[in-house]
Amino acid sequence: MDVKKLFLILIAFILFSCDPGNAPNQYSLNVLIEPDNAGSVTPNTGAYTDGEVIEIEAKPVENGSTFLRWEGDYSSTSNPVMLNMNKDYNLIAVFEFVDHPLNIEIEGFGSVEESLMKTNDYDYNSEVRLTAIPDEGFEFIRWEGDISGTETNETIVIDSEKSVRAVFTDFVNDREGHQYKVVSIDGKKWFAENLRTKSYSNGDSIEHLEEPYEWAEADGTGAWAYPFSDASNYEIYGLLYNGYAVNDSRGLCPSGWTVPSENDFQALEAFIGLDYTYKSENDEYGGSINLGGKLKATGTEYWLEPNEGATNDYGFSAIPAGIRSSGGVFSRFQRLGVFLATKFDDASGWNRGMAYDNSSVTRYLNDLGFGASVRCIYDESDD
Fold first, then answer.
1. Are 320 and 292 within 8 A, CB to CB?
2. Residue bearing the bigger pLDDT, 32 or 2
3. 221: which residues sit within 8 A by CB, 6+ positions away?
């Protein structure tokens, strides 16, 4: 074969090989993600030779979404799947965002306000602004859990289950700097300690009348005394006040707080479970439901044995500072805790007592010269 003929055969072969009609078919793959940013697909696009078998896999966002199904030119819930590329495929990979809870715990007295700062219409990856709001008279201390810091405003990204604790103070101070633990009972805030102040809320001093004759002759003058006339009892048991101090218009409790009324005590007892018709005289009641026991501090550190029925279910932590008669006589220290209420009339007031040897509550009608302990309650009329 001569060279010329060989050259012509080679040219013909090349031309035949380049004929598009003889090339293998090519098919395309295109995958959309629904909803946006809910996951990814590998591969999600490309051109493939007719008959080529490929594996495609849907990948959810870790902790953020789950894969549901394939839609479009191929329907299936399997993942991954094998495709025979014998045609063009336009697919939709359908995912679902996972909702993650935000658990908020409150310690102390306050609340947390939640506001959505940024979202893609799904809970995953949402940004939530948390604002710590202390109750009146209390302070915000810090965040704990999945956020930290002392600023009242913090932002948290919900990309998994989150738990946050907002820590507020659970105490208040009087003008002399004494600190009192506070408890919430039936949504009302009560002191869990006996009052220790020696001045009215405006700063005026309360008379200290320790001698019996002084106390007996107070006659309208507000006064305080140490329990059992012993100053060493002061920090634990507080002070004993007469009814004149309790009802003085200058105020005995810290600002925003007040001495409880007879109605306040009745509401407290009803919440604990007392169903009772009060008598118009000194009366003992509630033993069948352990009413007094549920209000008393437990153990015998402050009470004499046996401290009958004491469970302190509500944190009221009643302790027995004893009493002082209107004649100035101290009695029943560590045996009886009596808590004064605002006056019933111009000469007397209903008070509450709990004793070491039973689990009842006693309701006393005492003249205003009588001395006992004071617990303050938050004054909701100021709200």
1. no
2. 32
3. 207, 209, 244
Same domain flag for 84 and 127: no
Question: What whole-number distance in Å separates Cα of residue 342 and Cα of residue 279?
Answer: 18
The separation between CA 246 and the C-alpha centre of its own chain, rounded to angstroms, equals: 33
Q: Decide if 243 is inside a domain.
A: yes
| One-letter amino acid of 197 | T
- Report yes or no: 190 and 196 within 8 Å, Cβ to Cβ: no
Instruction: Read off the pLDDT of residues 127-185 as tens digits, 9 standing for 90 and up.
Output: 999 999 999 889 999 999 999 999 999 999 988 889 999 999 999 999 999 999 999 99
Residue 208, both tokens: 């200290």
> What are 282's two structure tokens?
């000194």
pTM: 0.76
**Is residue 4 assigned to a domain?**
no
Distances (CA, A) of 355 to 204, 208, 278: 33, 27, 19
Q: Say if 13 falls within a structural domain.
A: no
**φ and ψ of 65, to 5 deg:** -155, 170
Query: What is the per-residue pLDDT across 44-80, written as a single tens digit (0 to 9) for each?
Result: 999 999 999 999 999 999 888 999 999 999 999 999 9
Angle (CA) 131 134 138, round 5°: 155
Instruction: Tell me if the bond preceding 306 is cis, omega within 30° of 0.
Output: yes
pLDDT tens digit string along 242-254? 999 999 999 999 9
Smallest CA-to-CA distance from 347 within 366, 374, 362 is with 366
Report helix, strand or coil for 367.
Answer: strand
Counted domains in the chain: 3
The Cα–Cα gap between 77 and 37 comes to 19
- Residue % of the chain over a pLDDT of 90: 83
| Contact status, residue 131 vs residue 116, Cβ threshold 8 Å | no
Check if the beta carbon of residue 336 is closer than 8 Å to that of residue 320. yes
